[in-house]
Amino acid sequence: MKINIKARMKNPVFVTTFLATVVTFVYTILGMFGVVASVSEDMVMQGIAVVIELMAAVGVLTDPTTAGVSDSEQAMTYTEPRKD
Shortest CA distance to 18 belongs to which of 31, 30, 9, 6? Predict the structure, then answer.
């Protein structure tokens, strides 16, 4: 199985899902051993959401299917996303 992790890490949906999964995993393991973290899982998730929203607002998270931050010439002709 080949995964283009660099391209996936530029996708905000993947990043959000991945981080949520990691946080849930860590808190589940801590709970299994009776460790109570001083920061709640909800606070961590809110912090992650704020960081991702800030990154999206300044344009750090871009479309991984095109080079740079601009859309391709072909994408500029679309009035809605391609169906294929």
Answer: 9
Counting every residue, how long is the chain? 84
* pLDDT, mean of residues 11-33: 88
Determine the Cα–Cα distance for residues 57 and 61; give it in Å rounded to an integer: 9
pLDDT at residue 82 above 80?
A: no
Quote the CA–CA distance of 22 and 71 in Å, as a whole number. 31
Q: Are 3 and 14 in contact (CB under 8 A)?
A: no
Classify residue 46 by its DSSP letter: H
Q: Which residues contact 75 (CB under 8 A, 6 or more apart)?
A: 66
Tokens 């679309």: give the residue. 78
